[in-house]
Specification:
Elements: E1 2-7, H1 11-22, E2 27-33, H2 36-46, E3 50-53, H3 62-72, E4 77-82, H4 87-95, E5 100-103, H5 108-119, E6 124-125, H6 127-135, H7 143-153, H8 158-165, H9 169-183, H10 188-198
Helix pairs in contact: 2-3, 4-6, 7-9, 7-10, 8-9, 9-10
Amino acid sequence: MIRIVIAEDQALVLGALAALLKLEDDLDVVGTAGNGKDALALCRALRPDIVLTDVEMPQMTGLELAAHLQELGLPARVVIVTTFARSGYLRRALEAGVRGYLLKDAPAENLAAAIRVVHGGGRAIAPELALESWSAGQDPLSERERQVLRLAGEGKTSGEIARLVHLSEGTVRNYLSEAISKLNAGNRIEAYRMARNAGWL
């Protein structure tokens, strides 16, 4: 049996994914979580073979979850199932050790097949995303620039960001300025939108 933990913040989607996978004789959904933090705790406790997760979730994104699993040396292989068809997300996912990346509008039978491929040591990437990823530009942002730009996009001031990430306000402004410059944007909100649309946040 392939043991699976599902992390998805939309209850309806979570229930549908669990029900779909339970129809397969060789797949066993051993736990579900509504956010990345709870999913990480489940993975530490249950040590599943596969973690099925979305990209954007509360408390910890699917990409952060994948990176933590890799850092902790946990055996779970990560398959992302998302609506975000952005090459930037795919590149970051692969860097975080993700083995599968599927879109939610893919045929249902593709999911079980992808889980089996990933469990067997292979990769399962949506073909349309793989092609787009090779033609898209590289993410120019550093991890810090990405962090402060994400908070700026949420409407936080430089002072609020400084307190949240434990930096001086001047340093935060420097990171934001650098991100705006790299993206050739007019201001922090435009830079946030550009980076988000590219899948870099």
